[in-house]
Fold each of these.
Amino acid sequence: MAETGRIRVAKDKAELVKALTSAEGRTGPFQTFADVIVFAATLGVKHKKRVALGEISKREPAPIRVEHFVSMGHDWVIKLLGVTATQDIKVISPFEQEFETQRNSVFEEYANGGLEILQNELRGAVDYTERILLLLSYERNNKKEQQEEFDLSKFLS
C-alpha cells in the first residue's frame, strides 16, 4: 500500500531515476527526481503501462513528499491520473486519506510503467538527453502522420 504523503520509486528503477537527473554532477535531462517521475508517469499513461512497484527504494531516491510535487505544480497530474484510473471524482478529495493513498498508488504504478519503457528505450545510450529527445520527436512526428491521414469516413452517410 502507498505511503501517504509520499511518492515511492521501485528499487530496480532507482539507478535510472538518479541517472536522469542533473543533480550532483550528473548530466541527466531532468532537474529533480520529481520531474523524472512525472515524465515517466505520463509516458506510462500514453502507453497504457501500469506496473506494481514491488520492492521500494529506501535510499536515493527515497520516497518523495507530495508537497514537492505540489510546489512544482505537478500535483494536478497525480489527481488527474487518479480520476482517470478510478473513474471517480471523489478520489481528488483532500479530506480522505484513503483517496490520497489510492491516487498516489495509481501515479506510482504509471510512473513505474513509464520507467520500464525508459529502461528499454535508453538501454545502451550514452547520452540520455539525446535519446529522450529522439523519443519525443518520434512521438510528435508519429502523431502528425496520424492526424494528416485523409479520412474518407466523414463523407459516408
Note: The longest strand covers residues 6-7.
Amino acid sequence: MSARVLAVEDTPALRALLQLCLTRAGYAVVLAEDGGAAVEMFLAGEFDAVVMDIQMPVLDGLAAVARMREWEKGQNRAPVPMLALTANTEPGDLRRCLEAGFTATVRKPFGLEDLLAAVARELGARPAPAGDDRILIAADPEFADLIPPFLDNCRREASAMRRALERGDYKEIAAASHKLTGAGASFGFQPLSDESRRIEAAAKSADPAGVKAHLEAIGLYLDKVKVIYP
C-alpha cells in the first residue's frame, strides 16, 4: 500500500509541482492550500508523512506543525515525519523549524531527487528512483515566452564571465553578475541570484577561485533546471 503524504503549499503552481513529484514516485498525495486546512486534514485522516511550506496564510507552517504535534501527544500517537519546505536556510531559521516539530527541512526551490530522498529517508525507506536529478521549477504559464530566452541569456552571460575570468577582467565579471543577481529571483530562479551575488563579491575581491567555484555552481544549476507550467 502506498504511503500517504499530506502536501501543504499555498502557491497553486508549487502545489501542482509537489503533487507531480510525489505521485510519480508512487506516493498517495493529499493536498492542502494553507496551514489551517492542513491541520483539519491531519486530525481527520491517517498520514505517513507531511511535507509543508513554512510561509502560508491562515496558519503558517510552524504554527500548523505545533498543533499537529500537540494533537499527536493528546492521542498518544507516534510522531509522523514532517518536512518543512523553506527558502530560509540560516541556522536560526532551520532551528526554529525543528523546535516547532518538523523532523527535517528541504530547501526551496527543491530538486526532484532531493525532495524524494528526504521523504524516503524520513519514512525509513529507500529513495524512490527519480529517473534523473533535474531541478523542477513551476512557473506561471504567462511567462512561458519569457523564461526560455532568459535562461539562454544566463548561459551566455556565464560563458562570457568564464572568458573574462581567463583575462582577469573582474570589472566585467562584477557587472555581469550584478545583472543576474537582480533578474534571477525576479523570474523565480533564486539560486541564480544567490550564486551571482557570490560571484560579484568574489570579483570585487579579485578572488579567481571564488569566481570559478560559483560560476561552476551556476553552470550545474542551469544544466539541471527544468521549467514546467502547471
Note: The longest strand covers residues 4-8.
Amino acid sequence: MNTYILAIDQGTTSTRAIIFDHEMHIVGIAQRELMNYYPHPGWVEQNANDIWASCVGVIGEVMAKCNIADEQIAAIGITNQRETSLIWDKESGQPIHFAIVWQSRQSNTYIEDWKQKGKASWIQEKTGLILDPYFSASKIRYILDHVEGAQKRAEEGKLLFGTIDTWLVWKLTQGECHISDVSNASRTMLMNLKTLDYDEELLQFFHIPKCILPKIQDSSAYYAMATGIFKHPVPITSIIGDQQAALFGQTCFESGDVKNTYGTGCFLLMNTKDKIIQSSNGLLTSVGWRIQDEVNYVLEGSVFVAGAAIQWLRDGLKMIETSAETSSRAKETKSDGIYVVPAFTGLGTPYWCAEAKGAMFGLTRGTTQNQIIRATLESLAYQTNDVVMAMQKDSGISIHQLYVDGGASRNEFLMQFQADLLNVDVIRAMHSETTALGAALLAGLGIGYWKDKAEIKQLIAHEKNFHPSMDANKRSVAINGWKKAIHAVLAFHQDEV
C-alpha cells in the first residue's frame, strides 16, 4: 500500500492541506480562505475556531479528492503563520479572545512602554528580536490585560497560550499535547536563543506565567498521534514556522544559503548553522530548525510590501488587469530613472520606520504607465538587495546565489532584474509550495520516510536559473538612485514629525 505525507499549511489568509508522495510529487491540494477581522485601524484578528474548522475541512477534502485512507498517511507535518497568538481555556478548549494576528499593531502601547524602560537591547540580546508588536509577548500581555480575570486564571494554570501550530496540535490530539517547536518559540519574544528554553527573567518582566506556555520541541520528531479527526491515528512528526519551512523546502542546509519568498511582503532568511549572529543592521535572529539536537539559526529580513505593490497597480491605480502582464509591460520600456518606494505600511529591514509613506521619484510629463509598472517591480528587487547587503554585513558571508519562491518569483522580468542587481544567480524553485514542502520533508525525516538531508537534496529540483547580465557601472547608478529615493522618503517622514 502506498503511503503519503500530509502537510498542513496554515497561513494568514487561507489554510491548505497538501499530500506528497515519496518522490515529493504533489498528489492533491485543498484550500479554504480565512476571514480576518479589523476591529480598529491597524488591528488584525482571527477566530481560532474558524482556523481549526478550515483545517478539518481541507484535510477531509484533500483525502476524499485523492481517495486516500487514514492508514495511507505516514505522518503529518504542520507549518503555520508565526507570531499570531491566542489563549484558550484549558478545560473547555474555548479561546478567551480572538487570535491576535502577527500583522496587528494593537499591542503597540506595551512596546512603547518597554522601550521607555530601556529594555530594547536587553530583549534583543536574549531573543534576537527587535522590540515590535509583531511578536507574541505583547499580544499575550494584551489578552491577559483585556479579558476580565485572565491574569488570575493564567496564574492558576487554567489557561493555555499557543501560536497556531500549538493550537492545531492541541486540537488534533484532543487536548493531549500542548507543544510548539523551536522555530515558532523563537518568535514569541519569550525564548532565550542560547538555552532554547523560555527565559525566566523575560517571563518575570512581561508578567507571563510559565504554566500557560507550550513545551518546546524539535522541528522534526514524533510528538503524538492525531486522533481527533482520524479513525486510524496518524503520527504528527513536524512543526515549523512558515518562513523557516520555506528555507528547508529550498534545501538551504548550508551556512550562507539564502532564500527569498516573494509574497504579499518578502521574507529573506539566511542559514547561519550553529552561529547566533546578533544583527547591527536591522535584521532579526531566530531559530531555523532543530533536528535531533542539531540547531540551525537564521538571520531574517522583512520587506513589508512586495506583491502588495503589484496588487496596488491593479486595484488602486487600475494600470493592469492581472499581475501576470506586468512582466511583458515592464520589458517594453526603460525605467529612465523612475523609482517607486512602496512604503505603504512603513519600511521594514534595514530601516524599521513604521511611519514612512510611499513615494514616486523622477516623473516627467512623458512618464508612461509601463514605466511606473516597471519601477514598481524594480522596487521589490531594490528592497531585497537592501536586506541582502545587511545580511552580508552582519554575517561576514558573501552570498553567491539566491533561492526564490512565492507568487512574484514567477515574474521573469523581476527575477532577471534581481539577478542583475545582486550580481548573483537567482534560482527559482520547481515547487511553488516550498512552505508545505518543508513541513512535509521534516515530517518524513521524523519517521525515517527519507533517510537524511542528503537524500532530500537529491529529490528537490529547481526550475530555472537567472544569471546576472548588467554591467557594474549601470548597477551602481541604479542602486545609488534607489538610495536617494529611500533617503528622501525617510527625510519626508522626519519633516512630518
Note: The chain has a mean pLDDT of 91.
Amino acid sequence: MKTNKLALVTGGSRGLGRSMANKLADKGINVIITYHTNKTEADKVVAEVQAKGVDVLALQLDVSKADTFKQFGADLRTAIADKFGSDKLDFLINNAGIGLMTPVGATELSVFESLSDIHFKAPVFLTQEVLPIMNDGGGIINISSGLARFTAPGYAVYGSLKAAIEQYTRYQASELGARKIRVNCVAPGAIETDFGGGAVRDNADFNKMIADGTPLGRVGLPDDIGDVVAFLCTDESRWINGQRIEVSGGTNL
C-alpha cells in the first residue's frame, strides 16, 4: 500500500542502493535516488520502482563534492514540490560509496581525500543540508561496513572512515532525538555487487573464501541489505535508535 512517506537514497542507481530503492517501494514509500554519472542505469531503477506503484525520481549528485550540496538542496526542494507535492522528506539513506584499497604505509593523499570526501564528509554535510526539510519523526540510515569491526589487508583507511561514521551516527541519534528522528547505521559484510571492482561477485575463489568464513555459508546479496534498510524506514523499527546493525551473516565472529 502506497504511503505518503518519501526517502532519499544516495548512490541508488546500482548495487545496494538499487535494492534499497526497490525494497522501500515494496513498503509503499516514495523514493528519490541520486546517481553520479550513469543516468541510463538510474532510469532503469526509476522504471523498476515506478512499476511497484510509488512515485520516484532520479537526481544527479557527486557526493565527493560537498561544495555542490547547497545547490543540490535547492534542486531537491524544487523536485519534492513538483514531483511529490510536498516540502518535506522522511528518510535519508547515506549509501553512496567507492571501494579503494589503501595499504598502510603506502596511501596516496589523493586516495585518502577521495575516501574521506565520500565516506565521511558527504554523510556529515549532505545530512546537514537535508535536515531542515526532514519531517520530525523521520529517520537517517548511514551505511558502514563490516570492515569497521574486523580488518582486511588494504582497507585501513576505508574501514577507519566507516568506524568514524558509526560514531557520528551515535552523536546524530543523541542530538536529533528531540525531533524524534532516529539515526542508525547498517554495516554490510561482503556483498555480490560491482563494489571494489566486483571482486566478491566475480572472483569465485574470493567468493568461496568469504563464504567459508561465514556461518551461514554464503556471501551477501544486495537484497540482504535492502530489506534491512527498508525495515528501518517503517514503524516496526520505531524503538531502534543509535544502533550499528551488521548484516554480514556472522562473518568473522
Note: The chain has a mean pLDDT of 95.
